Amino acid sequence: MSEIASSARSAAADRRRRAIKVASHLLVDEPKDGQDAFLRRLDEQWTELRQSLDAVYRAHDDLAGHIDEVVRTMAQAWSMRSAELRRLDDDRIAAPDWFQRPDMIGYVFYVDRFAGTLRGIEDHLGYLAELGVRYVHLMPVLRSRAGDSDGGYAVTDYGAIEPRLGTMDDLEHVAAQLRARGMSTCVDLVLNHTAAEHPWAERARNRDPEAADLYRIYPNGTIPGTYERTLPEVFPGFAPGNFTELADGRWVWTTFNRWQWDLNWENPRVFVEILRVLLALANRGVDVFRLDAVAFMWKRLGTNSQNQPEVHWLLRAMRACARIAAPAVIFKAEAIVGPDDLAPYLGVAAPGVPDGRECDLAYHNSLMVQFWSALAARDTRLMTHVLGTFPHKPEATAWATYLRCHDDIGWAITEDDAAAVGWSGPAHRAFLSSFYAGEFPGSFARGVVFQANQATGDSRINGTCASLAGLEVALERADPVDVDRAIDRILLGHALILGWNGIPLLFMGDEIGLRNDWRFLSEPDHASDNRWVHRPLMNWRQAGQRRDPRSVEGRIFAGLRRLIEVRRGLPQLHAAIPLEVVDLEDPALFAFVRGDPAGPLLAVHNLTEKPQALDPAVLARLGLSTAIDAIEPQADPMCGETLGVAPYSCRWLVARRPVSPETTAPLYASLGHPPGQPAEDLRRHDRERDIRVAKPRFSGSTGQRRS
Question: What pTM, to 2 d.p., does this model score?
């Protein structure tokens, strides 16, 4: 046994030496400090890289040759990396928590809808800086197919920018301008598929065997039919099934649309080609990659072909490559999956995959879903249960938190979770779609149903944050009370994502309350996909009202800026600080605590239109008996013997300490209330009627795994 182990160690050492030799040969003209830095990182990451590629491609005939190609790709990319980006690499290595800090605020937009072109973004850098943005996500910018392109996710050329947006030089220029203002640049890298018009696909269609092996192509429909027995449909309404028959009788895997061909990641050449794309974009200044549709990358017969172990090994190998050739880069997993399937994308162990380093960020879809669910139901019990038992994330990672994005809201609520609070999963999901479509009696929302599945009864919803929160309807009715409530709902939701342990991502226009854009119905390329209702053109006229405290735009913008400013000064909101959900046993309130050596922060959210109160015992237990609300530090949070929480509001309660003048302007002043008014309203309300007082029950650490 010892001889076998010794032989394996010797073989591993030989492979390491071979990799270093391959890299050294390519870096012979590199200055010694640059060569040393690359080789040092190659040595540090080698075990992770080799083990990950071995786990996926061990049976491949020429694995050693493909690993050599991976090393050559990294060395060539490093040799072309600019001095400025290498300095950024050094800075990020010295401060690996740079993306976890409380001052990180993300902003997400389609380039054409925000600024027309990439160069047009320069005209609005001041706007982003005014909002406090440190991370800018440019929605799909790579060249995509003509007509319907799934919002840009059907890529025809990974090496070119969509012509109407600009050029690769423009992307590099804009990334440099953002970097000069302390902002990161995020772009989408579609890993699961290309457009059917991609040159690889065109060659595959013409029976080029090497090109065909880059995709999942089958000689007839027999094997696809076997796979289909266990595969769900992503878009049953307009793209049923998971395979498409070609003109010559062959079948190609098309998870999303017939014109999006799934790549064959069983072929190591796909890994090398995508790595080249990633590092080329990194050398253009992209430092955050949103890895699109990662859950679907690996296929396995008899399963749903999602979240397979090989997906995680592939992402870990890709991460190791980035850490070697472009260490300033981080990855964000676009994996809209269940909680237990999501955590492994941040490196938590999964079946067949041990703990490790994978993506740095992952979308917290459940947080978004639970906010809208609790808001409609005026009941936080499901939210408290789901988020209180949510798997933990590793300390060195962060959630990407959001209220809305370019995509639909799928009501990811399981039967077990609904049953845990005495609800029916199908009935609650149906209620939510009805409520946010504006069909349910008493609904304040205006959205549109998406992908209704007649077989399951499930459907999803589309709409902007403002329209789903009631602003569109309230303005049409010219009802000032309803307008106030809608604005409060918008700010409440943003307080939630700003307080969670991650990077809050603001979707373009939410900061000024942009409503649904129904003009999509008259655009031929958009009319069949009602997700375009919440992808409006940026309204710069409305944005011009952001400094008017009497306008809707001004009230939302100022309120959001206030929350961002307060967040920046709270060490408890660093993404590495653990989060624990607190069950207050009051269905109106949702709470969590963030611990920190500086003292804890208790965040309490009222998701109803009625004032609520909190038992001071909660504060005493946390050592916050003399707490202040960091959002409104000048106002007394106490309401008689209880702590008041105004309708649709949030309190960030921290230990009392001296407050600087620039952080004392109360949030509610931006909403048209005089300082302290919410607390006074609560005191008056307390005299007029009994208020049920919420008492605490800690649900356990968010590190608790769900069964």
Answer: 0.91
